[in-house]
Write a structure and sequence with these properties.
89 residues; mainly alpha; 4 helices; 56% helix; binds iron/sulfur cluster
């Protein structure tokens, strides 16, 4: 699926882009982040969006329902799992 295919079906297509770029993850920004994540939870292309953000190293904003920090954490976990699997071979 090309980028334009899934973006055309994005739940955020009609929302203000600023909603998906909270300034942090604490205090009022936490509420902002959670508002964006609620939109993502109802999005039919969440997996494609998350894949795209991770594949392209996007390090800001909410993509696929995850904040940049959550995506970094997910990537670190995946890297550790890959390393552990390679060591077992
Ligand atoms: S998962 Fe969230 S950021 Fe990604 S396309 Fe859907 S609504 Fe937009």
């Amino acid at each position: 699926m090309s980028v334009s295919d899934w973006r055309a079906r994005a739940a955020c297509a009609t929302r203000e882009p600023e909603l998906f770029f909270p300034l942090g993850a604490t205090g009022p920004a936490r509420v902002h982040l959670e508002d964006a994540q609620r939109v993502c939870q109802a999005c039919g292309v969440r997996a494609e969006c998350l894949d795209w953000a991770i594949s392209n190293g996007v390090d800001d904003g909410v993509w696929g329902g995850l904040s940049a920090a959550q995506r970094r954490s997910m990537k670190r976990r995946a890297d550790r799992n890959r390393e552990a699997a390679a060591e077992r071979r």
